[in-house]
């Protein structure tokens, strides 16, 4: 038996005022669709069909760019004629999985979680249901469909506008998530009619049709109070971001992570943080970032898809798709571009940029330096203003600096070039050929001194300054 998922992601979201599908709008730096996909993968659901619509090629591009643990296919909903119509577009997918159960989710309801998915499936299979609705209890159910329970399960869902006074008092609401026995869904899906003011096909009508055929219907109450939340405009999207931000920070507080101040702090849904780590204000942790134990993530760091070891100290650092090993100290004002690897004990000072390079153990890159496309050994010292010149306008080349080398201030290393073990470069040198082990390389233009040259320059500047001074005194 195969359990599978259909995710409805065809909405345009006109009130978002964007040219992308609504499901690709971000919550804490990730598309709402990604939150839903992640929950499905954590629930170990391997077959996923995404129903796309407006700007569907953007959905395709996003799905092709992510590393997926599941098989993901897409179908097109050319006309937006309701949730039931969207599921109809996946009929071939359903038929291919007719011996299992199908979960239907919304791509713009990001707070569905794996525990809710697996808990609802357990109830669904245990009670041999044709359909199981995921529900939530909320203090203010205004606008949501109410769940009508019976001794045997549920008898249906009543939309808010159609509720009696007694039904309006019900606080159990429909989240819009459903588990169906796939064969049962196929039996009634094409029987639903657009008999409503909007002329749309509603998936909820399948529940009444299944009950009329004698199929059992039940509801699973999620422990997640936000499972039903979505957004129709930018205000709603901001609300989702605020909810997600505080929920995630709260989770890490419960895990013992210290926050000095939560102003501007944003932590992604898939981020992992080790015990004893302290996080300061303005920190943004995104993607599949992993922060080790006993780290200090200082003000205004942005860390994305980066692995950070234990005992690391970062201050005003931006790091993307990189690796930082244990006991490294970096910052302030440092950028690690993709494929940078900073090894144990290294120190990176202020105003340094590193790209596609390895920095060896206990190497020091003090300040005002660019290292690109380079392999740097252990215990190397960089003076101020060093540049690895990796690009000739056509191709990029690598620089190799071996262990214990000393790179003097304002050295230009023109790749491809190699600095041998223990070798030195003199300050102000432009190095274009390999340096042997333990050698000193000096490359400077001949110094020329012109006696008295500065005197005339200084006289003109002094006269101009004195004139300005006299003018200001006369005012």
Molecular structure report:
It is built from 10 helices and 41 strands. The protein is an alpha/beta fold and 475 residues long. The protein folds into 2 domains: 3-221, Spore Coat Polysaccharide Biosynthesis Protein SpsA, Chain A (Alpha-Beta Complex), CATH 3.90.550.10; 234-441, UDP N-Acetylglucosamine Acyltransferase, domain 1, CATH 2.160.10. The model has no long low-confidence stretch (mean pLDDT 94).
Average the pLDDT over all residues and give the rounded result. 94
Helix/sheet category: alpha/beta
| Percentage of residues in strands | 25-35%
Residue windows where pLDDT falls under 50 for at least 5 positions: none
What strand line-up does the widest sheet have? 12-15-18-21-24-27-30-33-36-39-41
Radius of gyration: 31 Å
CATH class of the largest domain: Alpha Beta
Number of helices: 10
Oligomer: single chain
As a percent range, the share of helical residues equals: 10-25%
What name does CATH use for the topology of the largest domain?
Spore Coat Polysaccharide Biosynthesis Protein SpsA, Chain A
Termini Cα gap: 93 Å
Please describe the biggest sheet, giving its number of strands, its sense, and whether it closes into a barrel: 11 strands, parallel
The domain count comes to 2
Number of strands: 41
Tell me what the CATH architecture of the largest domain is. Answer: Alpha-Beta Complex
Shape: elongated
